[in-house]
Amino acid sequence: MRDALAIVGGGPAGMMAAIRAAEVLGDGRRVVLFDKNERLGRKIYLTGKGRCNLTNRRGWEEFAPHIHPNQGFLKNAFRAFSNEDVIRFFEEELGVSTVTQQGQRVYPASLVAGDVARALERRVQELGVDVRRGVTVASLAELSYFGAVIIATGGKSYPVTGSTGDGYRFAEEAGHTVTPVFPSETALLPVGYDPDLPGQEMKNVGLHLFIDKTLVESDQGDFNFTDDGMESGIAYHLSRRAVWALYNGQRVDIVLDLKPALSEEQIVNRMQREEHPRHAGLDPASLRSFLPQSLVAPFLRANPDLTVKNLPKRLKAWPFRIIDYKGFDRAVVTAGGVSLKEIVPKTMASRLRPGLYFCGEVLDLDGDTGGYNLQIAFSTGSLAGTSAAKYLL
Questions:
Q1: Residue 280 pLDDT exceeds 60
Q2: DSSP structure string for 11-70
Q3: pTM, 2 dp
Q4: Nearest in space to 227 (alpha carbons), one of 258, 191, 196
Q5: Which of 14, 192, 292, 295 is the most buried (most CB within 10 A)?
């Protein structure tokens, strides 16, 4: 089968690679797609809270800062198959209508992730790709009879979907360097976590991330307090740097700004208009004009010395010392992976072994929440599939 291509991993990157390779080769039977699951794209069903945030519509200049750790590496793949290309591909080739929502996030119009996974799988089947389900590839050596190989096994997040880090082992088998992998877009657990906080949905607030007491990143938007800590939205955005800092033994603090649209002076003026008395001590009922009722009790417990005088400052800076995070079983994304220095960005080819390609989450390349990670998968998968097929030809 020296004229055939093996793709290991049937997730978004693997299916995209199979589609492109089959199109270039003109014979899907020369593309063999291995997946350890019986159903392709299993992880897609979980993305975007079951709605599948396909991509983000921002142009490259606004898109790029959301890519880590090397946005420049993605540039060629993105230009070859951009976010607008992804939208056209799903709408015109796969028949999946899309809708753009807040933050330029693109979803299937049905808001059903399964529609995306099934559409990709149908295209794979239409092209005649040889799909081998329920097959676990144990080593790269097992595929030595193929003319080219694409590793699209994903990372280690959500291992129940089959993402157990196999690709890192294959990469090392080929002599590649694998940078340390760690959970990203995951829950951050504060010390002394108040039992009344889980279930609180925070809307349009600010978060400031401090590492070793130095401000390193800020964001504004929504997030949730859950049983596992600070999760989703802007908390996910900050989690990458927070987890890496904890991994390296650094101190991590997150400061919550409950009123990012108001300055302390504006809060004082509002209090004066509402005739709050300027004396030590504070009537908890008066906090309801600034906080949801359900948040009053935990806010007071976190600020036992709260007064009318210091209330504006405390509303703008509620500190949380972060001591832990949820692991790969709950993390949305894996950060770290196959070193980008050893991959050709124009083709996704290995610099160390001819005929070997990598794409998707197995690479040391990840994005913020908001459609960026699936775009990485589609762009790098498309480029790897095209490049590998041309290599065979």
A1: no
A2: SHHHHHHHHHHHHHHS-GGGEEEEESSSSTTGGGGGGGGGT---EE---HHHHGGGEES-
A3: 0.91
A4: 196
A5: 14
